[in-house]
Structure formats: structure tokens, C-alpha cells
Amino acid sequence: xxxxxxxxxxxxxxxxxxxxxxxxxxxxxxxxxxxxxxxxxxxxxxxxxxxxxxxxxxxxxxxxxxxxxxxxxxxxxxxxxxxxxxxxxxxxxxxxxxxxxxxxxxx
Length: 107
Known about the structure:
Layout: H1 2-27, E1 29-34, E2 39-44, E3 49-54, H2 64-94
Helix pairs in contact: 1-2
């Protein structure tokens, strides 16, 4: 019975830490860039886009496709950084718990 109570307490603590981590990830901002910094995209670690920067020299009609590709590249880079930040946060939270490989918690 003692082990069950201890497990329940540990689960409640984990739930509180996960809720705190969710809030922290919503406030963590990562940035991706492309074209040597000419295009930048900022996302929260949860993937919400916060801002887009486009160097004025790229605002030429004949370079529309290049600009679109740069925005996509910057977004992909920022998204990869966001996923990395989420993975690090989860690693810190679950460090003491023996979770099965591949288990995805609600992030």
C-alpha cells in the first residue's frame, strides 16, 4: 500500500511539473533564419509563430519565389529548435522516471 501512495504522490508531482513546463514552453521563443539572416522566423517552443523579419532588399517582385523559400527554410529551422527545446524540457522532467522508449507525453 505504501508503494502505491508513493507512486500516486510522484504522479501528482509530475503532473504539476508538466503543467509548469507547458507554460514555460509557451513563453520560450526560438528563432530560425535563412539567407544569411535576411529572413528570420520566431516561434514559441510549442510552435506558434511570433514574428517574421524580411530584409527590405528581398522585397522585389522578381524574387518572390526566393523569398517564399527563405521563409519556409527559416520556419523549418525555428521549428527544429522548438522541438529540441521541448525534448530537453521533457528530458529534465522525466530524468528520474523509468519511462518506456518512445513514450510520448502530452506535448
